[in-house]
Design brief:
Helix content is 22%, strand content 27%. Helix 2 crosses helix 5. It is α+β, with helices and mostly antiparallel strands.
């Protein structure tokens, strides 16, 4: 049976207005030396600072954010409730300059550890170069593509109805894919409404358009750069605080 994190269970069963707060979380001024992956996919000795861990805990504790760690599948996921308009800038090469406030409902981002692709008996033989977190094609932003009330209008494929935006009619807004403003405004929402500190946390969680996944009906696809080790560490600190144990030592 898959193991779901304590943070995920708590956030799915309690009302968000009654969530635990972690303002009393105290941490020492030492650096945390943990083995994590770098952006090139290689393991390296990384220092997590107290400020970074504090920022990560604050983000995961936000009412709009849910974190899941499936230890059996070695997969971490971050889900963000949006429920507002995220504006495009009109610079998508697929949209004819469409600038709209897109009604986005939620986003999801995940990464899986590379060791999951090896048999358990072979994992001890893996080198540092073999070990990394992979988040290709694992991100999405779900939106209202009906065109109603000023939101994005996907249009429909005349052949099957499953793929969008091959329709070249004037009614279709085209693809959000490659629109720079949409990603920047989504990141701004994370900062303004989800306590995401870009300065401290961008190296541990980032995303960009996926050229391979592009876009499906009412869903934009992203490649995800997610340091699972960092976010697992942040979740552990939340659990320690929730059960009354001492925070980072």
């Amino acid at each position: 049976m898959a193991t779901t994190s304590v943070t995920s269970v708590a956030k799915r069963t309690e009302k968000k207005t009654n969530k635990l707060t972690f303002r009393g979380l105290t941490m020492c001024n030492t650096m945390l030396h943990l083995l994590i992956t770098n952006r090139e996919g290689y393991m390296q000795k990384q220092k997590y600072t107290t400020d970074e861990i504090k920022a990560g805990v604050k983000f995961l504790s936000n009412k709009n954010v849910t974190f899941e760690h499936d230890a059996d599948e070695q997969r971490v996921s971050i889900y963000v409730d949006v429920g507002c308009r995220i504006w495009t800038s009109g610079d998508s090469i697929w949209s004819r300059g469409v600038v709209k406030g897109v009604k986005v409902s939620e986003c999801g981002f995940a990464a899986e550890h590379s060791s999951e692709h090896y048999a358990k008996e072979d994992r001890a033989k893996l080198t540092e170069e073999d070990l990394y977190w992979s988040g290709g094609l694992t991100g999405y932003a779900n939106y209202d593509g009906s065109g109603k009330d000023g939101t994005w209008y996907d249009g429909k494929d005349d052949d099957s109805g499953t793929l969008i935006n091959r329709n070249t009619s004037k009614e279709s807004d085209g693809l959000i894919y490659t629109d720079d403003g949409f990603v920047k405004n989504l990141q701004k929402y994370f900062s303004d409404e989800c306590d995401f500190d870009i300065h401290l946390l961008e190296q541990y969680f980032d995303f960009s358009y996926s050229e391979q996944g592009m876009q499906q009906e009412e869903s934009v696809n992203f490649d995800v750069d997610l340091d699972g080790d960092f976010w697992i560490k942040c979740e552990e600190e939340i659990v320690k605080f929730a059960v009354g144990e001492e925070a980072i030592a």
